[in-house]
Amino acid sequence: MWCENCQHETHLDVCELCGSKTEAVVPTDVFWCAECKTPIIRNRNDADKERCPLCNGKAKYLAADIRVVFPEERLLLELMLDKPLAYKDCSVWANNSRYYIDGKSVSLTSKMYSKHTPEYLLLKLQEYHDQNQYDVFNQFIERFIRANSTRFYEIVNEAHQFIQEQASKFPIENIVLSFSGGKDSTVTADLVTKALQNPSLVHIFGNTTLEFPLTIEYANRFRDNHPLAIFKTAKNNEQDFMSVCEDIGPPARMMRWCCSMFKTGPITRVLTRYYRDTKILTFYGIRRDESTARSKYNRVEDDAESVKIQKQTVATPIFYWKDIDIWLYILTEQIDFNEAYRLGYDRVGCWCCPNNNLRAQFLSSIYMPEKYKRWRDFLIQFAVRIGKPDPEVYVDTGKWKARQGGNGVKAAEDVKIRFTNCTSEEHAKIYRLNRPMDDEFLNMLTPFGIVSKELGRKLVHEVIVLDARTNVPILSVQPFQQADYEFSVKVKTMNVASHDDLQRMVGYQVRKFNACRKCLKCESLCRFGAISIIGDSYHIDETKCKRCKMCVTAKYLDGGCMMDKYLKTKEGSKK
Fold first, then answer.
1. CA–CA distance from 309 to each of 301, 315, 521 (Å)?
2. Residue 127: count of CB within 10 angstroms of its CB
3. What is the 3-state secondary structure (H, E, C) of 127-168?
4. How much of the chain is helix, strand and coil, in % rounded to 5?
5. Which SS3 state, helix, strand or coil, does residue 237 take?
């Protein structure tokens, strides 16, 4: 345990000196040996952290973390600085857009990314390609591996122990590896396979349809190189990303609807197909240093609020690793990895992700010009549609990534729960629907109880919902004609302790009925596999539904529907 305030190691969860909560591991920093031209990973409390283990010379602090810069990225850096091949004999590393050339810092400003056109840079990359060799680079990497061999064995041994401990709680057939094609999931897969000495583990590759072409190539290579592994691909073949963008707008940093629709949703379907409602253990390649959000995760997550896919316990062997640790493992073990990292990408998720930084956009404009242009053209058209005064500036400065809600988007009307209180019956509300009440709507009431068409008044097409435990009627539902509403339904609550609570949850289902875009979030949320999107219909299997009401509880699904988060406007959608 480590107290950041007091900068000292302890065995307690709370520091005995200052009372602060302690961290689980001692932080590391990167030091630089000028003689050996190599980075050295040191624990912050190491007594000899300023000593190089190779030459025994003095090392100095360099950065909290760095990543490898391969010759391909180094050449691009040289071209941006108008110094082709100037650093070919140097040891080059980086942290975001700050480069370390033989230990000396060089920062790239945002203006430098627009200094040369992508076309010019691509031409120059091709021109100098044959002169851009790996010989010197390989020598520096071999030295880096030797200098950090102790660190390598420490983190690998700890990871193996963690994996074995977590895996001992589950049958081997219920252990899954989440594989994205990125470096972190690659390392995790290798660690788990070796720790459990089992090359036949299940790997699930989430193909979001927005992967880098190099990611697809790598995933195919990985599958070919691991013939004993059970390799399954999760892919949403029913939705088209650009069509959804046209409907509800592009994803943004705080509104990444694409993750549920194209990643966790399809993965849930694969897990449900093979494991049904069986609890499984999934090893993920998540690291706390990747983002502020991930720093709040636990190394093992299994509670309903934290886990995106409910049937799984999530364990992360590399949770405390830094970028340089990941590369130390890859280079030491000489395992294959995604070629996109050689080009300079530090993350290889979806190529158009709103979380991508300026450098990632810049690289895509060079190496994926057609995809980049199509996406930029769409963003500009969208900016025009929602009334932005200077659409190109809005897009090129990245302001589109900060977009929130559905302002200017026609589909935003669907998430607003419109209702009036019935004047003739107590505890009854008349809700606006955007299409006639049908069997799909009635099926959405399954979480509340047993839906019975037989018990309702046939003349007014009434349907009764019975409490599943007591068989007492709790809802009366019937189509209704209401001024100003083209379609509407009257819902009356009865025989319940809180009419308002039940009506609020009914309102959530009304929102789903009106606004569902098949984002698949509800499928991931249901731990019993009762919810499925079949074609264009939302369906709840009455035989699987346990009436736990997670799908209609704001604690687990704010507003009862993910579209509320993505499409609500300042006017508000909750009533």
1. 11, 13, 9
2. 11
3. HCHHHCCCHHHHHHHHHHHHHCHHHHHHHHHHHHHHHHHHHC
4. 40, 20, 40
5. coil
Give the CA radius of gyration of the chain. 28
Q: Which tokens sit at 245?
A: 């963008």
Q: What are the C-alpha distances in Å from 210 to residues 99, 145, 172, 262, 371?
A: 29, 34, 32, 9, 10
Question: d(Cα 526, Cα 556) in Å, to the nearest integer?
Answer: 10
Instruction: Per residue of the chain (575 residues), give pLDDT as tens.
Output: 777 777 777 777 788 888 888 787 889 999 999 999 999 999 998 989 999 999 999 999 999 999 999 999 999 999 999 999 999 999 999 998 999 999 999 999 999 999 999 999 999 999 999 999 999 999 999 999 999 999 999 999 999 999 999 999 999 999 999 999 999 999 999 999 999 999 999 999 999 999 999 999 999 999 999 999 999 999 999 999 999 999 999 999 989 999 999 999 999 999 988 998 789 999 999 999 887 777 778 899 887 555 666 678 999 999 999 999 999 999 999 999 999 999 999 999 899 999 999 999 999 999 999 999 999 999 999 999 999 999 999 999 999 999 989 999 999 999 999 999 999 999 999 999 999 999 999 999 999 999 999 999 999 999 999 999 999 999 999 999 988 899 999 999 999 999 999 999 999 999 999 999 999 999 989 988 899 998 889 999 999 999 999 999 999 999 999 999 999 987 544 44
How many whole angstroms separate alpha carbon 417 and alpha carbon 348? 39
H or E segment and range at residue 473: strand 473-482
